Amino acid sequence: MSAAAALDRSDPEGAIAAAAARCSNWDRWGPDDVKGTLNLITDEHRRRAAALVRRGATFSLAQPFDMDGPQRGWRRRTNPVHTMLDTGTEAELGIQGFPHGLGGADDVIAMPLQCSTQWDGLGHIFDHGRAWNGRPAGQVVTSAGDGVTGIETVAADLVGRAVLLDVGRALGVDVAGQGGELPDGFAITPEHLDATVEAQGPTSSVGPGDILVVRTGQYGRTLREGWGEYAGGPAPGLSFTTADWLHEHDVAAVATDTWGFEVRPNEFDVAFQPLHQVVIPNMGLFVGEMWDLEELAADCAADRRYEFLLVAAPLPVTGAVGAPLNPVALK
């Protein structure tokens, strides 16, 4: 019987508690730790990752940050609002107040930090009032922000070897020649991850300190059909049962091309993002969401190399529990 089949859909509390106990990394790196699984990315790991760059090809994995983004207002999450402060019009009219004909343009953006391609920080999710490493949630995140595990504490850490597991291409259906995608509600189990590794070959092996990037193909579908319910609606994603797989493989971080990383609807009768509740506060795992993996996935399929150097530094907003970024893959 598969792990997914063994889930008791009526008992999320019990399943979450059991998985949290099995997968906990509390005190693994000491009581004062603020970096969680990013401790697994060592300098030697980064040195080896840099050697993966052979062609010098680069791929931005960020969705556009603009007003046509996926957000629909859930919990006051809106799309970015970009406004010009100075434009070429003012420069032509000579009303900017600069000497000798100098002109310029300036702009401003207002947005929730998790409205497009982003990392969930360790202060983003709590489990029964406890934050990462067992700290009381109220002592970590206050109205002043996350004063302990704010995203700025890992501003230089999210660089290393990454592996793309293109589950959409390996197990899904190719629609409109876009390389394969999974249907909404498809729960990616450990068996699916292992099958994808086997299908893709040796460059897909996932080990300690690696950043796991999972393509479902859902974002590619939005490019063809529009956003629809991408933000918060039904989606393919990781099964709750992958918590142990992620822990056993000691991945440093995981990112997907979906809004919420895990399968939606969730696998329990009454639950909201139960995998988040295990991996962030208990495992100390950083979670990336809403990444654009289409161009990278096509390139990986073409050259049969699924490992690459990933530079994925979050914007170091002091005290933030998550942050936008422009992740760049180098091959």
UniProtKB/TrEMBL annotation:
SUPFAM superfamilies: Putative cyclase. InterPro entries: KFase/CYL, KFase_sf. Gene3D superfamilies: Putative cyclase (3.50.30.50). GO terms for biological process: L-tryptophan catabolic process to kynurenine. This is Putative cyclase. It comes from Sediminihabitans luteus. GO terms for molecular function: arylformamidase activity.
